Amino acid sequence: MLPTRLDKRLAELLGCPRGEARRYIEGGWVRVDGQVVEQPQAQVSTETVELDPSARDEKTERVTMLLAKPVDAAAHTLSAMVTPESQSPLDLGSIRPLQRHFHGLQLAAALPASDSGLVVVSQDPLIIAHLQQQLARTEQEFLVDIQGERAMWDVARLQTGLKENGRTIPGCKISWQSEQRLRFAGKGLHPRMLREACAGASMQVVGIRRLRIGRVSLGKLAPGSWRYLGSDERF
């Protein structure tokens, strides 16, 4: 039997249009000799081609992942950290991992290399554009670990030290999480600003971790692991 494209063979087997066959293949519903193949252009000849009984004819959507960035991981390495092997076992959502989910990923909400916590990696141009344009207007939550001589700490200066372009950022909530850990939550925050505010209050920052962007939280993701952004989650 001469080799032919997988989508053509599947269309012949199902008696359906090639476009429908292509969507089944790209959706991860088709097996060739028992192995899932997601490339419609894959060549088949005598292999057994099967469609999953639970297959749905639907367009493959672009996905967004939430990654727990480890300390000292540079921005240009983060998208490559999102692999099938690094998916968190806590990810119990309804999205079925597909090979195409790991192509064309872009970093949408970065952090400095020295900091850790929630970053966003996405295929969706709408999500990428929203975070690039609106992150400064979106509430974020950070934990900041500090050290130094407690008698020198000027806690009252923290709020006034949160400045951007010479203006104090209003409405930021600051609270103690432990004796050497502060929580900051507010709009317009970023790690450089937090470091400067702490330095102005005679506090030495030893670590910053982002916990939340808008209504989307890091949760219990382990460093270096990721989960899909749920369909009901919004930044």
Structure, explained:
- The protein is an alpha+beta fold and 235 residues long.
- The protein contains six helices and 16 strands.
- It has helices at residues 6-14, 18-26, 75-81, 125-134, 157-161, 191-200; strands at 4-5, 30-32, 35-36, 43-44, 49-51, 64-69, 106-109, 116-122, 139-147, 163-164, 167-168, 173-178, 181-187, 204-213, 216-217, 226-228.
- Strands 6, 7, 8, 9, 12, 13, 14, 15 and 16 form a nine-stranded mixed sheet that branches. A three-stranded antiparallel sheet has the order 3-2-5.
- A hairpin with a 6-residue loop joins β7 and β8.
- α1 (6-14) packs across α2.
- The mean pLDDT is 92.
- Keywords: RNA-binding.
How many structural domains in the coordinates?
3
- How many strand units? 16
CATH class of the largest domain: Alpha Beta
Estimate the helix proportion, in percent: 10-25%
Distance between the termini: 52 Å
Instruction: Compute the number of helices.
Output: 6
Question: What does the secondary structure layout of this molecule look like, with pairings?
Answer:
Blueprint: E1 4-5, H1 6-14, H2 18-26, E2 30-32, E3 35-36, E4 43-44, E5 49-51, E6 64-69, H3 75-81, E7 106-109, E8 116-122, H4 125-134, E9 139-147, H5 157-161, E10 163-164, E11 167-168, E12 173-178, E13 181-187, H6 191-200, E14 204-213, E15 216-217, E16 226-228
Parallel strand pairs: 8-14
Antiparallel strand pairs: 1-4, 2-3, 2-5, 6-8, 6-16, 7-8, 9-13, 9-14, 10-11, 12-13, 14-15
Helix pairs in contact: 1-2
